[in-house]
Amino acid sequence: MRNRWTILVLLFSCSRCWGQADNWHGSLEAQAVFISDRNNVPFWMRSDRFGSVPLPGTSASFLAAGAKEYSPQAGLVDWGASVLLRADVGSSSRVTLIEGFVKARFSIFQFRAGRIREFTGLVDSTLSSGAFAISGNALGIPKVQLSIPEYWSPPVFGNLFAFKGNFDYGWLGEDSIQYTRYTERSKLYYHQLSFWGRLGKPGWRLQLYGGFTHQVQWGDERSIYGPKFLLTPFKTFQYAVMGKTYLGSKIGNHIGSIDLAMSYDLGNVTVSLYRQNFYDEGALAKLANIADGLNGISLTNKEYRIAEAVPDYYPVLGDLNPPFQWHKVVFELFYSKNQAGYPWSKPTNSGDENYYNNFEYYQGWSYKGQGLGSPFVTPAYTTRSGFPNSRGDFFNNNRVMAFYGAIEGSIYNYRFVARGSYSFNYGTFGTSPWGHTTGSPARYTPVPKYMWFKEVNQLSGSLEVTRDLDNGWQAGCMAGLDYGNLFYHSAGLILSIKRSF
């Protein structure tokens, strides 16, 4: 009898979730795309967009999305799902699953499985140029994830401490294994562990944050190490996750960051500062590459309000909805030029960091050819032809200093997001006068002068404007521009119409 009542209660709960239309939402969108260069989409029209990128040239795009969110009335247990499909028709045609996952919640824990649009790190959640390890620049890696998604305070210390984190296992597909005669293509796997802590009670003006993220890709170690590799698949997974060494080196390609951040509530404005310290080969343990990092400041206007769309009427300055409002402003400095690779750098056993490149996996820290980390580190196929590239490096430019700014706000009932960056690009240490280094003491491989990557500068920007219309309709446009010597000059325009329901 008790089991019957349990089933009835569960069915009643599910019927309530299904019946609440406010937990469901979806949209259909059509885009007309005009790109001046038939081979290149402007940088900020293709970066940090979770792989949702139009075709170059003239094309049309169609997007369909649907999702079920958690219900506020569901209590400790609930479920949800999300899907986003993109179809592009132009010089070629394609259909891409941008997002598709199911999720379940139990108390503070969440389980998700599928392809997820997300980033990892203590950076601004909407306007950052991109976190170092996972920036949202590429399609999401198919995976299963167990997490505490929101900051949770243990029932002690009066909510002074809070933490969140996640543990992921994913599938990267296939990549070429370098320097092996045993195979050309191998299946790769993915793991991510992150942990974040917060110091400060909810009512305090000052909040301090810190944490780390650790990612690793691995696969087909027997082809890399040869017959002497004797670990079982489960043992290999353990070694990869824990970063243990085997036969003199760590299994897989490890990457991540150690992050620090703070926020201060000024009343009308919240100020946030953050710093990401990079690690790839191990130099950060000796602070040898401490000069490298992502530094950011974010200003959020807590009084920002979207103006109501009232035809032929705009409130005057000083009313509740002034003509111009800013919501958020972000400034960042991305610096990755050091890499502990100079002759005067502190020596490390691993040599220069060579961010995102890997001597075992040809495409390095990428997924389906797109970099998983900061978009300022560029794969060779995205830059102008003719740049020198060191043998085995998929990313031909990972020594970068970039200044970045973004603003989000509204003018009357038009919402806008503007982004801009100016970067100084120096290739890799493999295309520098010093060459790649290995070992301690460092061993340098001199590079002939014709293989040096000379400094090139790049200016890129974008502006996106949207306006809500009646009955769930929204019109929008996006423009982008590249001007400089790293990418070919390119301009783009996207006109869109969207219906939400």
Q: Would you write up a description of this structure?
A:
The strands form five sheets. This protein has an 18-stranded antiparallel beta barrel. Strands 10-11 form a two-stranded antiparallel sheet. Strands 16-17 form a two-stranded antiparallel sheet. It has helices at 2-19, 43-46, 221-225, 233-242; strands at 24-35, 58-68, 77-89, 93-106, 109-115, 143-152, 161-175, 186-199, 206-218, 245-246, 249-250, 253-265, 269-279, 293-301, 324-335, 366-367, 370-371, 378-379, 395-397, 400-411, 414-425, 437-438, 443-444, 456-468, 473-484, 490-500. It is mainly beta and 501 residues long. Mean pLDDT is 88; it is low at 1-19 and 307-319. The chain has one domain (25-500): Beta Barrel (Porin). It starts with a helix and ends with a strand.
Structural key phrases:
single chain; 501 residues; mainly beta; Porin; 18-stranded antiparallel barrel; two-stranded antiparallel sheet; 7% helix; 46% strand
Question: In angstroms, what is the radius of gyration?
Answer: 24 Å
CATH architecture: Beta Barrel
H/E element sequence = HEHEEEEEEEEHHEEEEEEEEEEEEEEEEE
- Main sheet, how many strands, which sense, barrel? 18 strands, antiparallel, barrel
Task: Note the gap between the termini.
Answer: 42 Å
CATH topology: Porin
User: What is the beta-strand fraction?
Assistant: over 45%
Low-confidence stretches: 1-19, 307-319
Q: List how many beta strands DSSP finds.
A: 26
Mean of pLDDT: 88
User: Can you tell me the number of structural domains?
Assistant: 1
Class based on secondary structure composition and strand pairing = mainly beta
Tell me the overall shape.
Answer: globular
Helix content: under 10%
How many helical elements?
4
> Can you tell me the CATH class?
Mainly Beta
